[in-house]
Amino acid sequence: MRSLTHSDHAKANKEDRPAVLTRLLFRAEVWLRARLLPLQIRGRSLREMLELAEPPLGGSRREGVSAAFVVRTVRRVTRHPWVMRDRRCLREGLLAYRLLAETGLRPRLHFGVERGAVTSPRVAAHCWVTLDGRTMIGESDVPYVEILVHPAAEALRG
């Protein structure tokens, strides 16, 4: 069994730099997107917000970024919101959906309301993201009545 020499360590560190640089650049990009998102969606309809959440057709896919890393980064960046304080789940959901889709995955963005919201003066709504049927962002102990899923199941088959 051979022990690693100083040059072996230097070579290993050099090979890790692109991964580290990729992660740092990704975190910086997510931070910037999170700060710009409130300005981008201000005054827009839900349909327009969902269009913004979609990556451009033919856009480049992110290589080497896992779903788990996307979720951790989105959570970390949105942990202390400067704006959209009452809509953190929407901010997290839109960001995570777009970033997961950019990695080539097929996430789904769900919207729901609390049971009994129809009779309440204030509607309590929630947004969450799933991947392969598993909630990635927006877990909640409150049962929500799902009112919209983006993209619709028909769009995923196409």
In short:
This protein has 158 residues and is of the alpha+beta class. The protein is 48% helix and 16% strand.
Defining key terms:
alpha+beta; globular; 4-stranded antiparallel β-sheet; 4 strands; 158 residues
Shape: globular
The biggest sheet, with number of strands, parallel, antiparallel or mixed sense and barrel status, is: 4 strands, antiparallel
Q: Trace the largest sheet across and list its strands.
A: 3-2-1-4
What separation lies between the terminal Cα atoms? Answer: 53 Å
Which whole number gives the mean pLDDT? Answer: 82
Structural class: alpha+beta
**Low-confidence segments:** 12-17
The fraction of residues assigned to DSSP E strands is: 15-25%
Helix content: 40-55%
Total beta-strand segments: 4
Tell me the radius of gyration: 19 Å
User: Count of helical segments?
Assistant: 5
Estimate nothing, just give the exact number of structural domains: 1
Order of helices and strands: HHHHEEEEH
